[in-house]
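Board notes (copied after class):
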Amino acid sequence: MKVKFLSELSGADQARFRESELYRISHAGYRHCEVHLEYYQEYFGPSWEDVSMVAFDDNCFAIVVYMFLGNGELSFFGAPLSVYSDPAVPVKEMNYAFQELFVKIEQLGARRIRFFEHPAFLMKYYEHEGFSASILFETAIDLSRSEEDIFMCVRKSYKSLINWGKKNLDIKVYDASNMQDSVMEDFENFHVAVAQRRTRSHQSWMLQSKAVKEGMGFVVMGYLDGELVTATLILNGLSECYYGVCVNRRDLMARKLPIGHYGLYLSILLAKEKGLKLFHFGDVTDNPDPKVNAIVKYKRGFSNQLLPRNFFEVNL
């Protein structure tokens, strides 16, 4: 096994990687797809160096880890990184591949690394290091379930709010078949107006527009009396999608108009219709910030499935 930075792979090896089972596994979700990585690099800026690595030989690709080095930390832009491996690779070869990977990681000189669990190898390698373990909770929806079952998992109080939106909102959906940059510019301007400030660059919005055009996401916009009042962006990988951005008119929400619920619920159904397998809402761990916790509570209302995930921080 040899370990290389992804950026250093030859054209032939890059082509082989794209055809591998490991590529399919690591690109099931959206985060590591190329167009989404472009967005992250734009959003977080040049202070994070791409040091993503892959372990492979002539027969297979065994391990890939998408990681970025910043402030002496190895992570996925500050979030725990995921290590993907091909379960078909024999244990002996996988063990050797991990050993080579760890040697390469040590050469980066990072002082700290954050990663989601990979007990077979990571924990064994770092067992003598000082590390701390934490847990976060995520929620998701199994899109193989029937529409009736999906609706049954929605919080009881949300069901009438979803039905209100279905009855009162004019909905427009944009995906690879009809997406234009002007749609995302409208979304961007709506976000700035609601937030009353600009939170990220125009280029980051255009990269998300590019993702939608490439079939890696879709946009749902809701109009009330001809005015845009809610907008939702869903991002996807090869088989899973993620609740990305949702913006709702605050003045209407203050009047208790449930403008956002139907657009998000419809997004779940659209993801199912597109053949995706899992709809992620991301981290829904209780948070001391009341504003963040309100979003957590809102997301939890669309699924009764709570998924605990362990992650570790190692001081090297």
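Comment from the instructor: Residues 187 and 231 are 7 Å apart (CA to CA). The domain at 2-128 is CATH 3.40.630 (Aminopeptidase).
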